[in-house]
Amino acid sequence: MTDANHPTSAYAAAGVDIEAGERAVALMKESVARTRRPEVLGGLGGFAGFFDASALAKYRHPVLTTSTDGVGTKVAIAQAMDKHDTIGRDLIGMLVDDLVVCGAEPLFVTDYIACGRLVPERIADIVRGIAEGCELAGCSLLGGETAEHPGLLGADEYDVAGATTGVVEKDAIIGSERIRPGDVVLGMASSGLHSNGYSLVRKVLLSDAGWSLDRDVPELGRTLGEELLEPTRIYAKACLDLIDAVEVHAMSHITGGGLANNLARVLPENVHVTIDRSTWRPAPIFSLVQQVGGISVPDIEATLNMGVGMVALLPAGDADVARARLADVGIDAWIMGEVSSGPADNAGVTLVGEHRG
């Protein structure tokens, strides 16, 4: 039906509901408002978000940093369970912790949600999770876009992505040039799978083994679905505090590609890192995927984080203080390896030993 108050009814007939989008914005406003930093100007719903850059005047030489990412096929678990209020925390974890590894403070985030059919309550749930993640990271949810794509996505399908911007003093950027032989590698526990490797996990447990998401798994102490939806741990605030407290030389966010591959990304030439698996015990979900799928150790370690979500490289003398600071905010951390000098052809990471049983 068409009338003067609904000029877009033809668009709605094509599968795009403008009114639903407006309702979604109204539902998410309170969540977004909770993330507001003092530098944010204006409100939600404009064409662009505003962040007062005069706040950067306190920096001697501010360097802006940016990162963009998504959640991957973990969204399929959220959709299958019809639980959408945690997937946004996964998005923020993937975004801000890529910034913090260089020492940057995340300032704001913008998000993008594409869906087959815009259900306002569902979108509000997703954004509530994004906003909660922003609160945990100390950044603002500055704006975003929700796009309805009928015919491209199924009615109950969606995907989420985003981008974040941060700032760091130029002379405070941490990274490979600061790493020295004799540094130790401090591992920080993950909350579980985080948001990587879900194509493998879904194939192994859901497709090949035929397990249902509501299956109670004694090793996990909860259902499979609850385990797979465990939100990504967000390390940003804890890592920034750590950088202020001790001499951190470099950090690595352990995401797709696993521990060794991500750690190697921050290593300079002519150094080598040895990681001792016996220093920690991965959560049961990791051995479960490996055993059910009959996956080799190299394959599983090149796909999943194996219980380590972030690592810091720092002088050995700072390790105890670092562990204590992280423990104060509920993050278990331990010395898992060390940096040694080596020829260029020996650069990289070696894992030795076996995980504690």
Short description:
Helices cover 33% and strands 24% of the residues. With 357 residues, the chain is an alpha+beta fold. It is globular.
Low-confidence parts: none
Mean pLDDT: 92
Radius of gyration: 22 Å
Distance linking N and C termini: 65 Å
Query: Could you please say which CATH topology of the largest domain applies here?
Result: Phosphoribosyl-aminoimidazole Synthetase, Chain A, domain 2
CATH architecture of the largest domain: Alpha-Beta Complex
Number of distinct helices: 12
As a percent range, the share of helical residues equals 25-40%
* Strand composition percent: 15-25%
* Molecular shape: globular
Structural class: alpha+beta
- The name of the CATH superfamily of the largest domain reads PurM-like C-terminal domain
> What is the total number of structural domains?
2
Order of helices and strands: HHEEEHHEHEEEHEEHHEHEHHEHEE
User: What is the number of E strands?
Assistant: 14
Q: For the largest beta sheet, what order do the strands appear in spatially?
A: 10-12-7-13-11-14
The CATH C-level name of the largest domain is Alpha Beta
Biggest sheet descriptor: 6 strands, mixed
Pathway: Purine metabolism; IMP biosynthesis via de novo pathway; 5-amino-1-(5-phospho-D-ribosyl)imidazole from N(2)-formyl-N(1)-(5-phospho-D-ribosyl)glycinamide: step 2/2
GO biological process, one term: adenine biosynthetic process
Enzyme class: ligase
Subcellular location: Cytoplasm
Blueprint of the fold:
Blueprint: H1 9-13, H2 18-33, E1 40-41, E2 50-51, E3 62-70, H3 74-81, H4 87-100, E4 105-115, H5 120-137, E5 140-148, E6 158-169, E7 184-189, H6 198-208, E8 216-217, E9 222-223, H7 224-228, H8 236-245, E10 250-253, H9 258-264, E11 271-276, H10 284-293, H11 297-301, E12 308-314, H12 319-328, E13 333-341, E14 348-352
Parallel strand pairs: 4-5, 11-14
Antiparallel strand pairs: 1-2, 3-6, 4-6, 7-12, 7-13, 8-9, 10-12, 11-13
Helix pairs in contact: 2-5, 4-5, 8-12
